[in-house]
């Protein structure tokens, strides 16, 4: 029994001695290769930092989409869009929303409501993760960009909003505030644009109303100057008179032809019929001269001038009515909710820390450290060979 104990002790002492020997050999190799030694030390320190010191970061996520409430103005559905998905319908609104959420204005609102700087600069946070020095809003904004991401999913057409904080409550509050402020921004921007359109339309309505009044006044002035209410109606009346005279002339010519068969040419009846026909011809010529003539001032010229003035008045009135209808629609658009933010996934309260990825970061740091050290070692060897 005593012999077995002594054998165990001897094997243990030999194992300790061999381990000590290997450690000495390892350190001697590191001394001969200072770059690898530096990489080894850096790897140990960084691994200790990632595994034991780095503060937990909680991530709250929300998924939103910007939609228009003006259903009447939407275009007819496209078969290609139905099969492939409408990935560009509200792309501009989504990207504008993304830029706003990542803007300084959004950071300022979060700072005013949630005190971002106080949260991110707590002493309980590790020195490499916390906001150590924020001498200006620019420093806080750069840190804010590292802790907030807003990605646009091209296929689904939604915005994915993520906010990082050092406790779950703060992460959820940040995401909730961003979603609420984003909805307010989109609707206010749309209402502001509609209000600008209303102001423009109001000016157009005033100008077109004045134009319509001037055009109508021109028509009335023309009627008063020519002492005629409707040249077209007057021309129709003259045409009716001419038609009646032509009919009477035809009757007299028939009588003249029938009487000439048994009466002499200078008979009083024939003379009277010829006199009446001549008078009708003169009256027809007079009425025709009222309708048209080479010197102007006739009813056809008056009717043409009146038609131009009346058409201009009607056109001005139609423009005024169109602008007035557009103004009424714009006033409604400027007061209602034009764009709304639909929340597909509400901001969540994180159950556990998602960041940092301690094992992954440790492995990446180790690989990079030894890779850089190997490259530098190779460069040193090349330089030494060239010197020799």
UniProtKB/TrEMBL annotation:
The chain crosses the membrane at residues 35-53, 363-383. Residues 191-225 form a coiled coil. InterPro entries: Bact_polysacc_biosynth/exp (IPR050445). Keywords: Coiled coil, Membrane, Transmembrane, Transmembrane helix. The keyword Thylakoid does not apply. PANTHER family: FERRIC ENTEROBACTIN TRANSPORT PROTEIN FEPE, TYROSINE-PROTEIN KINASE. This is Chain-length determining protein.
């Amino acid at each position: 029994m005593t012999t077995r104990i002594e054998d165990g002790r001897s094997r243990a002492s030999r194992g300790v001695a061999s381990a000590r020997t290997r450690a000495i050999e390892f350190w001697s190799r590191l001394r001969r290769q200072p770059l690898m030694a530096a990489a080894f030390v850096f790897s140990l320190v960084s691994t200790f930092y990632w595994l034991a010191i780095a503060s937990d970061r909680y991530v709250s996520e929300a998924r939103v989409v910007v939609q228009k409430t003006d259903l009447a103005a939407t275009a007819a559905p496209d078969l290609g869009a139905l099969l492939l998905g409408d990935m560009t319908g509200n792309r501009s609104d989504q990207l504008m929303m993304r830029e706003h959420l990542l803007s300084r204005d959004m950071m300022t609102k979060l700072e005013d409501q949630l005190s971002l700087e106080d949260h991110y600069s707590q002493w309980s946070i590790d020195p490499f993760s916390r906001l150590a020095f924020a001498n200006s809003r620019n420093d806080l904004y750069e840190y804010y960009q590292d802790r907030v991401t807003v990605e646009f999913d091209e296929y689904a057409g939604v915005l994915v909003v993520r906010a990082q904080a050092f406790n779950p409550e703060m992460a959820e509050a940040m995401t909730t505030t961003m979603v609420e402020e984003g909805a307010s921004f989109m609707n206010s921007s749309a209402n502001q644009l509609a209000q600008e359109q209303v102001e423009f339309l109001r000016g157009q309505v005033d100008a077109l109303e004045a134009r319509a009044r001037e055009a109508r006044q021109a028509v009335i002035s023309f009627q008063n100057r020519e002492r005629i209410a409707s040249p077209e109606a007057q021309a129709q009346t003259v045409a009716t008179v001419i038609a009646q005279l032509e009919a009477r002339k035809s009757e007299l010519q028939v009588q003249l032809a029938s009487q000439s068969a048994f009466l002499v040419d200078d008979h009083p009846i024939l003379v009277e019929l010829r006199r009446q026909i001549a008078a009708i011809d003169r009256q027809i010529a007079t009425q025709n001269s009222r309708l048209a003539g080479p010197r102007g001032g006739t009813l056809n010229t008056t009717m043409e001038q009146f038609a131009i003035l009346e058409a201009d008045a009607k056109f001005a009135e139609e423009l005024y009515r169109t602008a007035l209808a557009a103004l009424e629609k714009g006033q409604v658009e400027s007061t209602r909710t034009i764009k709304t933010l639909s929340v597909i996934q509400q901001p969540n309260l994180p159950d556990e820390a998602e960041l940092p990825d301690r094992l992954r970061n440790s492995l990446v740091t180790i690989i990079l450290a030894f890779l850089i050290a190997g490259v530098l070692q190779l460069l040193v060897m090349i330089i030494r060979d060239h010197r020799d």
